[in-house]
Design goal:
binds magnesium ion, alpha/beta, 6-stranded mixed beta sheet, 7-stranded mixed beta sheet, Aldehyde Dehydrogenase, Chain A, domain 2, 2 domains, binds NADP nicotinamide-adenine-dinucleotide phosphate
Length: 500
């Protein structure tokens, strides 16, 4: 029997929020889709309908883009000082922080993640992210250039790009919204944001705080809807200057093609198949625990999940039992249950996808060391057990393709010099990790790994100040840190003839 989860433990504001038919935010007003169409979002722990939201489409995106354009060209946003922009971002952070519990519950209901994780990780990271970019608003600077043309004074201005379309995924719904909005707003852009169809609720709740935070109408517009309709309408819209996307590599390619028609600036944060390398000289306890965290955090629904675990053969038989033990200890269940450490996958499609990979691994001859299917006792909800595959071969689908679920392939290696090459044998390049006590080996590996982030003796470490993004087909452009300012500004060079 599935444990009963007290829906009564929800705060009244959350119950109210999901009970009312939601609207989307265009030009500071809450509106229905022009078509009147809606779609429902589902609680992945119960498979029950959670809320109804507008199915925005081309016409709605067009209205949102026009509002964003007006706000950018002539609204009060244009006249706000950098300091005022920074204060609005800081205020937004305060407003979210004061509602941490409410946002955490919405995230758990919509996405499935454990409430304990949403409270301790997602929402605090969102708050910190907005505070970090609040600080940047006053530090977006140009330069003076010592040109060699006599009589000229030359300087650069770093200006906002304009109207920015932001399309985000469902794995960290509010955090992905924060990653996109923080830098864009600090730099003075206006935004049309499309949350993922599976998880629109926390972004809509955030939208309700924008006015109080001090963002004028039209600066942030939130259009809920499907990728093929609302998302595509943003990508092809002639008056959107830039599109920022996080999601699958496949859709990333489509976005790049669609954006070519109007030569939009594009930044893409895409999938991964990240190598996690354990050398024999590592602290094996932390490496095994780290390997479990690397793949199982957020139920494996992380673009940077450590899904290919390379273990030096000398210690393979010491690391594997620990990894299996960690895997089997994880409490899988509904996110609202305080005992739960891993919730359901986000949707039935995702369950099907991951189950397809489990079947394919078995069919191609991989061995299931633990997991491999649905956990016992959970008869509804999109649950999958933490799974370790062994005896895998490089040509297997489970080794080559991003699964985006709690499934890791354990791969023994003999030659420490060769493992980095094996780790790089993927079209992806989002993240990688090495576990070793040898400082030279660690830094050498970090140099050679073709990935946007390399962790040494840790995994999934994140901070608003540390750039994140991909090599190869994991995308391009860096979010977070100072690097994100590049995505949301353009440089204007000004020549002044000051006389000889
Ligand atoms: P996805 O299709 O790439 O969706 C990401 C976002 O793009 C969503 O907002 C989606 O809208 C939108 N979108 C989809 N097609 C579009 C189009 N043609 N034009 C513009 N926008 C479009 O990801 P998914 O289907 O949710 O998940 C599939 C796989 O993507 C996962 O299994 C995983 O491998 C990968 N993924 C990666 C990340 C990451 O952080 N890098 C995050 C999520 C998923 P809809 O909500 O309507 O689909
Ligand atoms: Mg949902």
């Amino acid at each position: 029997m599935q444990p009963a989860v007290a829906e009564s433990s929800l705060t009244p504001s959350v119950t109210e929020f999901i009970a009312a038919r939601r609207k989307m935010l265009i030009d500071g007003k809450w509106v229905e889709a022009a078509s009147g169409k809606t779609f429902t979002t589902v609680n992945p722990a119960t498979e029950e309908v959670l809320a109804e939201v507008p199915a925005g489409d081309k016409e709605d995106v067009d209205r949102a883009v026009r509002a964003a354009r007006r706000a950018f060209e002539s609204g009060p946003w244009r006249r706000m000082t950098a300091s005022e922009r920074g204060r609005a971002l800081w205020k937004l952070a305060d407003l979210i922080e004061a509602r941490t519990e409410e946002f955490a519950q919405l995230e758990t209901l919509d996405n499935g993640k454990p409430l304990t994780v949403a409270r301790a990780a997602d929402i605090p990271l969102v708050v910190d992210h907005f505070r970090y970019y609040a600080g940047w608003a006053t530090k977006v600077e140009g330069e003076t250039i010592p040109v060699s043309v006599p009589g000229m004074f030359t300087y650069t201005l770093r200006e906002p790009v304009g109207v920015v379309g932001q399309i985000i995924p469902w794995n960290f719904p509010l955090l992905m919204a924060a990653w996109k909005l923080g830098a864009a707003l600090a730099c003075g852009n206006t935004v049309v944001l499309k949350p993922a169809e599976q998880t629109p609720l926390s972004a809509l709740r955030l939208g309700e705080l924008l006015d109080e935070a001090g963002f004028p109408p039209g600066v942030v517009n939130i259009v809920t809807g499907f990728g093929e309709t609302a998302g595509a309408a943003i990508t092809v819209h002639p008056d959107v200057d830039k599109v920022a996307f996080t999601g699958s590599t496949e859709v990333g390619k489509t976005i790049m093609q669609q954006a070519a028609g109007t030569l939009k600036r594009v930044s893409l944060e895409l999938g991964g198949k990240s190598p996690n390398i354990v050398f024999a000289d590592a602290d094996l306890d932390s490496a095994a625990e780290g390997a479990a965290a690397a793949i199982y955090f957020n139920h494996g629904q992380c673009c940077c999940a450590g899904s290919r675990l390379f273990i030096e053969d000398k210690v393979y038989d010491r690391v594997m039992p620990k990894l299996i033990e960690y895997s089997e200890q994880i409490q899988v269940g509904p996110g609202l249950d305080p005992k739960t450490q891993m919730g359901p996958l986000v949707s039935s499609e995702q369950l099907e996808r991951v189950s397809g990979y489990l079947a394919s691994g078995k069919k191609e001859g991989a061995k299931v060391a633990t997991g491999g299917g649905r956990p016992k006792g959970l008869d509804r909800g999109y649950f999958v057990s933490p799974t370790v595959f062994t005896d895998v071969k490089p040509e297997m689908k489970v080794v080559g393709e991003e699964i985006f679920g709690p499934v890791v392939c354990a791969i023994p290696f003999r030659d420490p010099e060769d493992v980095v090459r094996a780790g790089n044998e993927t079209t992806y390049g989002l993240a990688a990790a090495v576990w070793t006590r040898d400082i030279q080996k660690a830094h050498r590996a970090a140099q050679l790994l073709k990935a946007g982030t390399v962790w040494i003796n840790c995994y999934n470490a994140f901070d608003a100040s540390a750039p994140f993004g991909g090599y190869k087909q994991s995308g391009f452009g860096r979010e977070m840190g100072k690097a994100a300012l590049e995505l949301y500004t353009q440089i204007k060079t000004v020549w002044v003839n000051v006389g000889a």
